[in-house]
Amino acid sequence: MDATGGLRALEARVTSCRACPRLVEWRERVARDKRAAFANEEYWGRPVPSFGDPRANVVVVGLAPAAHGGNRTGRIFTGDRSGDWLFGSLYRCGFANQPVSARRDDGLRLTGIWITAAVRCAPPDNKPTTEERDTCHPYLVEELSLLANAKVIVALGSFAWDASLRAHAAAAGERVRPKPKFGHGAEAHLGRRVLLGSFHPSQQNTFTGKLTEEMLDGVFRRAANLVS
Fold it and tell me: From first to last of its 228 residues, what are the pLDDT tens digits of the chain?
């Protein structure tokens, strides 16, 4: 099976997953009760699939879908402020054909990049448990193995950084020692791949100035340079 077929098969398993009772209850409750601003919309309310170019040289790993973002729209980093920052940067850096990701049918196309997450369901307070993280872990391991062209992994936040290190360890059969420390702009070599760190484009970071557009663009320009 080629990468596209393998990723589609993985997506089918991911989007039908009900392995974590707390996450299933939360994602479905949010989809049922809705936020007032989206009261007339039909929420996705399931695990959110990854999105992008199956031939990607760069893989972006986030934490988990947002309750009223990906859990509503059915596409990762779509329909929330974090996504506005992420896709704006990808557009400026040549990975996306438009700077906005509002819904699944908005015409957005990615070139050379694939976006996924460590946990595929929206967690309460954006905080998955250790057990939930570990349950989703095999999906990321399989996904990275299918993305054979990927040379760079961009981890958005320390949770995604650790998940990427664990996925590499599972695939390679050994951990990187000493453990690379997360930081914005941090780099770690994982065999044939390079792991880049970036602060997550959450409102907590963007509103306070901890992460600026220039900082985020710098990470993706570095990723582009590494695969050129």
Answer: 688 999 999 999 999 999 999 999 999 999 999 999 999 999 999 999 999 999 999 999 999 999 999 999 999 999 999 999 999 999 999 999 999 999 999 999 999 999 999 999 999 999 999 999 999 999 999 999 999 999 999 999 999 999 999 999 998 888 889 999 999 999 999 999 999 999 999 999 999 999 999 999 999 999 999 999
CATH at 119: 3.40.470.10
Burial of 41 (0-12, 13-18, 19+ CB in 10 A): middle
pTM for this model (two decimals): 0.97
Give the structural domain span for 211: 3-227
CA-based torsion, 9, 126, 21, 162: positive or negative? positive
- What is the domain count for the chain? 1
CA angle 155, 157, 161 (to 5 degrees): 50
